[in-house]
């Protein structure tokens, strides 16, 4: 292989074209391969702003892609990159056209090198080159690590008329640590610029001197990385008012500092507490302090060991960039004798190899060679960021030593490998503590070839085998037997051999500086990529961009969550941090933010104290509060002031005694219940103050206690941050104040929607700016098969999200690397079903992802070295495109871009073809309404109507429970239909049961917890003298008593055990089913047994309602009467009879429901430990055609004398014994009063195949008697 290159000396400062004549000119190497380059010497350092290329004149030779490199010395080249990632320039497509590239950042260099990568396949490399730029003048100073440059202002610095100070310079160095600049100013303030491990640190200190009375403070900021690469780096420190802008190369960080900071000089000494103890070793260029050229002044008054030329050390690095990279060098044995003082040979050195490397990878081969005399093969490699040496032979490891740690930190590390007779030594970083030894029993001597970084790709290569990862990184200072390898000669193919190497350049890139990991994600990297650790940040994704939390309590509620503490990330992927906030999930979802003093604070008159000042520190910071209040539909905060001879606001014309300060930091002179600027209290606005001459009760200045309280509801002033109480200094003055937590409800963003009813309609918004990270989330519903949700275009770049088919959503974009699509298929599930579906798309520098509902997401990786900036310039189109084609038909809701919600409703109000808002939420959220709750549509959202449920809460999921004491009872009376018609405004309505007094079936359910036995749990009766009773007998076994022609009883386990039990009794026609489900807390599971009974009906059961007896207790069954007199102590929960919830009516609507409560009754959580839907296993036991005798307290006896009946009875008993889980004793008693005459024919039976719900009753108005008032007793 031959390498050809050309060096052109070009001293013309105007930088006109090179080989740009129309003759058959241009550069054309003899061979066309990737080892060629064209180098231009500009004569001196020059500012280069652009380059242009053209093919060779009159030929078919041109370069279609190339790299650009620059250098000050003709050594240690630096590759020019666009966007910090793109290094390849697109060249020509013919020999005549000119392609010009304007450099994004000008380059200051003397030498320029162009390396062809691709060329015309039908020709060869041919090039004409032109560069553009300007002359460049600079002042430089060189430091050798022992000297310094001192500059002082005398007598003190002149104030900058612009009100700011600027310190700027360029530096270059080969050492990774050293102090660059130390500045001291007034008020014991100092500034230090320090290079530490290749990063530049800015230290700002206050009170750094030991004798200073100023308390010490220290601020340190780090910028840059790999700054020890012997290339120029620009640094600027700019003080403007209360902040400092710190810039390293193209990256700037802003630091808040006191406004009076001012620096007065640059000093060589007095730099305590910096990380580096070294002085700087390298060069400065153009050191300016407020436009004063410090180096130029220092030339006139030279101090210290400083020279004013930049002497650069010669160092030739080599980059191993790919899987095929390797370097082969000769490894002939070199013998050297160490001779002691007496002339005796101490040993023979058979291996002496050293090198320096830097990498981000934890593993990779550094060196391998075969040992002489076929003693095996030696591998020097990185493993888990440590250096390891192994000698293998015939598959066995003969030597294995390891040393060092954390060597993948991107810093230069040295490795020395020596073998002296029978001792093998491995040393890292010249540190004795990082030295490992081995004593092999065979000589260790290198063979003919040394392979660095990897092996040639030939499969039959017996000279080099690499069982490890290839090395990706840089090497330099390679020495073999104390001789430094001349890598320039290697590049010229005069020594050794290589493949896929970049010689005279270290191409390492720090992909974590600046870090693309957002929201505090921790960045780690390898040679080709980086990784973000998002743990404990509250964010997810490849760059920790997307929040894992919801943006409001409203969003948590509509995921079915109950009240509790939740992390709220109010701006999603925006900069505001998540905050733990309490969400009170009621009909209106309240977000509650606490502060440090919500209790009533009492004040008394104190001498010498004229005012009391209270500051309120909230659980959310100011930025979070501002965003929460802005997003909420309503916010409020209660102010309470209790007073006795302590005036509050005075009169509207006088100076207020008390005021408060809100978010705007302006004093507010109105109190709760009044309006801003009124200097009144709520009573003044309503005209009901105790003294009509004043506008606050406390302003009457009476000796009796008075109160002014009310809600502050103007969001612009909330929350209350300060309260100043003024009238407490007079004798006898007393006051107390209280500021409640901030409460907000509603989420303007969550329901913000627009309806697109024309394919050509769209909403337009300002350009979306998501250069490095862009996330888009929204909900949609449609019946259309396709349509574009949104689109934003640039000159070449674009971004688009669309429904491409009923089962596919596509996220398309182009950032300069060509169009890419991310697609999510729903597996045949149609998305045009007029239900809400959620779409989340994200694009960052690593990948693009798309999520649709809970379907499997899709991800598209970004190119490793591609364009990363998304550059858009058109308007953002929502619901359509700029071409008005493929528009979306349907609703889009809660559209957010990078955490910012677009106000679709406001824009829709002024846009034809688009309507504000979008109804129809129950189709998507209706399943959240549980336990017979009914979904009710609202303009913004929906609600659950729990009127027909025994449960309460926003989703009818909260158990309504009460703890009963002895003597407590609840009576519910069913009223007649005409009474209901006269009172239709009742809050608690159960219209079905009022009209359903002739029943085909019943559905009764409740839960209980007690340790009392015997006990009456529930009793139902009517004026027909018909009843049902559920009781526990003396053994704690449940017993159900009906008055029927038969009695059923089954022995079960004890239910009076303090655990929660769920009872369900259902009747349909002649069949009654009883189920008891028991929670077992220890095992966290449930036992359930169901028994089904069938009996004959003499007359249709119009009496089977839970009502209290209104006749004398003498008509009661004696056992029930006795249990009724004992009362019940325990818990009852979610009691329901068909669509009536009597316990809920008594607890929540006692004034508007037909209930009578005896004894103390209060809502409790005693029944909340039982799951709403435990899905119990059921066991059914049919008992039909019973003809046995009936006796009170006797079990049922089946008198059928058949084998099948006997076997069936044995099987039934066996089932109950095996399950051991039923606790039911059922006695069915039927008692019919002879004096009552029913108007219903007895031979009429209900229709079995009725389409009605089996437990819902049918109205028969002609059979309703005026006297059959029904009651329910618990």
Topology at a glance:
Elements: E1 5-9, E2 37-54, E3 63-71, E4 78-79, E5 89-90, E6 99-119, E7 128-135, E8 140-144, E9 151-152, E10 164-173, E11 178-185, E12 189-196, E13 199-206, E14 217-223, E15 233-240, E16 243-248, E17 251-256, E18 263-266, E19 281-289, E20 292-293, H1 294-300, E21 306-307, E22 318-320, E23 326-330, E24 337-339, E25 345-358, E26 364-370, E27 377-383, E28 386-393, E29 396-403, E30 413-420, E31 423-428, E32 435-438, E33 449-452, E34 473-480, E35 483-484, H2 487-491, E36 497-499, E37 501-503, E38 522-525, E39 530-533, E40 539-540, E41 546-547, H3 553-557, E42 564-568, E43 579-585, E44 589-593, E45 601-604, E46 612-615, H4 622-631, E47 634-644, E48 659-661, E49 667-668, H5 682-686, E50 706-712, E51 722-725, E52 734-739, E53 742-745, E54 753-756, E55 763-765, E56 774-781, E57 787-793, E58 798-805, E59 808-814, E60 820-825, E61 837-843, E62 847-852, E63 858-861, E64 876-878, E65 890-897, E66 900-901, H6 904-908, E67 914-916, H7 922-925, E68 934-938, E69 941-945, E70 951-952, E71 958-959, E72 961-964, E73 969-974, ...
């Amino acid at each position: 292989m031959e390498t050809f290159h050309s060096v052109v000396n070009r001293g013309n400062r105007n930088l006109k074209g090179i080989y740009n004549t129309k003759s058959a000119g241009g550069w054309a190497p003899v061979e066309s391969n990737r080892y060629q380059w064209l180098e231009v010497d500009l004569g001196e350092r020059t500012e280069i702003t652009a380059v242009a290329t053209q093919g060779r004149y009159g030929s078919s030779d041109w370069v279609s892609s190339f790299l650009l490199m620059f250098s000050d010395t003709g050594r240690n080249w630096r590759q020019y990159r666009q966007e910090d990632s793109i290094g390849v320039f697109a060249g020509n497509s013919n020999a005549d056209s000119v392609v010009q590239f304007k450099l994004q950042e000008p380059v200051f260099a003397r030498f320029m090198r162009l390396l062809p990568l691709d060329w015309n396949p039908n020709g060869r490399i041919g090039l004409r080159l032109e560069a553009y730029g300007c002359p460049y003048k600079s002042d430089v100073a060189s430091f050798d690590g022992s000297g310094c440059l001192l500059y002082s202002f005398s007598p003190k610095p002149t104030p900058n008329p612009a009100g700011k100070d600027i310190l700027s310079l360029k530096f270059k160095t080969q050492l990774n640590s050293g102090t660059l600049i130390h500045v001291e100013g007034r008020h014991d303030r100092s500034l230090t610029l320090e290079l530490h491990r290749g990063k530049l640190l800015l230290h700002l200190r206050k009170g750094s001197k030991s004798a200073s009375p100023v308390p010490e403070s220290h601020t340190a900021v780090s910028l840059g990385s790999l700054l020890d690469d012997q290339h120029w780096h620009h640094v600027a420190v700019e003080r403007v008012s209360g902040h400092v802008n710190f810039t390293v190369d193209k990256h700037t960080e802003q630091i808040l500092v006191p406004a009076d900071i001012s620096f007065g000089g640059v000093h060589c000494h007095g730099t305590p507490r910096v990380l580096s103890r070294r002085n700087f070793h390298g060069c400065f260029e153009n050191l300016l302090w407020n436009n004063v050229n410090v180096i130029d002044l220092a030339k006139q008054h030279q101090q210290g060991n400083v020279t004013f030329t930049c002497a650069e050390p010669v160092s030739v690095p080599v980059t191993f960039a790919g899987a095929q990279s390797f370097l082969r060098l000769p490894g002939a044995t070199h013998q050297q004798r160490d001779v002691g003082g007496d002339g005796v040979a101490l040993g023979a050195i058979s291996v002496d190899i050293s090198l320096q490397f830097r990498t981000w990878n934890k593993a990779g081969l550094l060196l391998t060679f075969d040992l002489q005399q076929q003693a095996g093969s030696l591998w020097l490699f990185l493993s888990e960021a440590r250096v390891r040496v192994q000698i293998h032979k015939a598959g066995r490891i003969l030597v294995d030593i390891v040393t060092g740690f954390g060597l993948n930190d991107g810093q230069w590390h040295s490795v020395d490998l020596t073998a002296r007779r029978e001792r093998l030594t491995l040393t890292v970083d010249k540190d004795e503590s990082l030295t490992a030894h081995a004593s092999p029993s065979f000589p260790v001597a290198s063979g003919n070839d040394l392979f660095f970084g990897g092996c040639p790709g030939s499969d039959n290569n017996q000279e080099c085998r690499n069982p490890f990862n290839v090395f990706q990184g840089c090497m330099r200072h390679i020495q073999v037997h104390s001789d430094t390898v001349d890598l320039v000669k290697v590049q010229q193919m005069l020594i050794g051999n290589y493949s896929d190497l970049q010689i005279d350049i270290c191409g390492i890139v720090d992909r974590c500086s600046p870090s693309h990991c957002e929201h505090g994600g921790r960045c780690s990297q390898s040679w080709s990529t980086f990784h973000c650790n998002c743990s404990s940040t509250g964010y997810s994704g490849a760059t920790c961009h997307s929040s894992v939390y919801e943006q409001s309590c409203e969003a948590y509620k509509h995921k079915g969550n109950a009240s509790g503490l939740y992390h709220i990330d109010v701006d999603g992927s925006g900069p505001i941090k998540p905050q733990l906030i309490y969400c009170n999930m009621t009909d209106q979802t309240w977000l509650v933010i606490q502060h440090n003093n919500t209790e009533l604070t009492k004040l008394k008159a104190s001498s010498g104290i004229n005012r009391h000042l209270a500051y309120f520190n909230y659980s959310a910071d100011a930025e979070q509060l501002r965003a929460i209040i802005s997003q909420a539909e309503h916010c409020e905060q209660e102010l309470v002031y209790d007073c006795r001879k302590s005036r509050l606001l005075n009169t509207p014309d006088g100076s207020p005694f008390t005021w408060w300060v809100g978010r705007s930091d302006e004093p507010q002179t109105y109190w709760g219940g009044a309006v801003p600027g009124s200097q009144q209290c709520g009573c003044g606005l309503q005209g009901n103050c105790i003294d009509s001459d004043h506008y606050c009760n406390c302003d009457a200045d009476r000796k009796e206690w008075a109160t002014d309280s009310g809600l502050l509801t103007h969001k612009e002033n909330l929350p209350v941050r300060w309260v100043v109480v003024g009238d407490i200094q007079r004798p006898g003055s007393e006051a107390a104040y209280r500021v409640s937590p901030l409460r907000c409800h509603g989420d303007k963003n969550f329901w913000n929607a627009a309806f697109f009813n024309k394919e050509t309609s769209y909403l337009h918004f300002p350009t979306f700016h998501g250069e490095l990270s862009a996330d888009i989330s929204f909900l949609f519903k449609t019946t259309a098969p396709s349509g574009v949700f949104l689109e934003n275009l640039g000159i070449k770049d674009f971004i688009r999200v669309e429904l491409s088919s009923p089962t596919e959503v596509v996220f398309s974009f182009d950032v300069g690397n060509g169009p890419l699509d991310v697609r999510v298929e729903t597996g045949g599930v149609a998305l045009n079903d007029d239900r809400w579906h959620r779409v989340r798309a994200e694009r960052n520098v690593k990948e693009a992802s798309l999520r649709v509902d809970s379907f499997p997401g899709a991800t598209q990786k970004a190119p490793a070295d591609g364009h990363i900036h998304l550059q858009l310039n058109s308007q953002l189109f929502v619901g359509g495109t700029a071409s008005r084609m493929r528009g979306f038909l349907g609703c889009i809701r809660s559209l957010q871009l990078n955490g910012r919600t677009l106000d679709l409703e406001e824009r829709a109000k002024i846009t034809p073809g688009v309507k504000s808002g979008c109804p129809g939420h129950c189709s998507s959220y209706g399943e959240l309404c549980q336990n017979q709750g009914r979904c009710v549509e609202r303009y913004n959202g929906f609600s659950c109507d729990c009127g027909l449920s025994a449960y309460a809460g926003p989703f009818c999921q909260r158990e309504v429970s009460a703890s009963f004491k002895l003597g407590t009872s609840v009576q519910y009376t069913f009223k007649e239909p005409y009474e209901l018609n006269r009172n239709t405004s009742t809050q608690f309505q159960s219209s079905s049961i009022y009209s359903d007094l002739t029943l085909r079936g019943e559905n009764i359910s409740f839960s209980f917890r007690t340790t009392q036995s015997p006990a009456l749990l529930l009793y139902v009766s009517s004026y027909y003298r018909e009843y049902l009773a559920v009781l526990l007998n003396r053994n704690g076994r449940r017993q159900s008593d009906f008055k029927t022609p038969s009695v059923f009883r089954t022995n079960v386990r004890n239910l009076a055990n303090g655990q929660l039990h769920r009872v369900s009794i259902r009747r349909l026609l002649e069949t009654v089913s009883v189920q008891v489900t028991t929670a077992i807390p220890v095992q966290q599971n449930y036992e359930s047994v169901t028994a089904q009974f069938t009996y004959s009906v003499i007359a249709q059961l119009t009496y089977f309602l839970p009502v209290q007896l209104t006749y004398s207790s003498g008509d009661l069954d004696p056992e029930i009467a006795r249990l009724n007199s004992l009362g019940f102590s325990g818990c009852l929960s979610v009691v329901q009879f068909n669509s009536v919830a009597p316990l809920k009516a008594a607890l929540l609507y006692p004034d508007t429901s037909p209930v009578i409560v005896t004894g103390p009754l209060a809502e409790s959580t005693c029944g909340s430990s039982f799951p709403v839907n435990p899905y119990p296993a059921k066991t059914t036991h049919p008992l039909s055609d019973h003809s046995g005798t009936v006796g009170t307290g006797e079990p049922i006896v089946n008198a059928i004398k058949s084998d099948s009946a006997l076997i069936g009875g044995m099987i039934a008993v066996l089932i109950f014994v095996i399950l051991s889980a039923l606790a039911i004793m059922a006695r069915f008693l039927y008692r019919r009063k002879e004096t009552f005459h029913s108007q219903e024919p007895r031979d009429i039976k209900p229709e079995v195949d009725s389409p009605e719900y089996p437990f819902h009753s049918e109205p028969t108005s002609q059979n309703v008697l005026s006297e059959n008032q029904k009651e329910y007793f618990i």
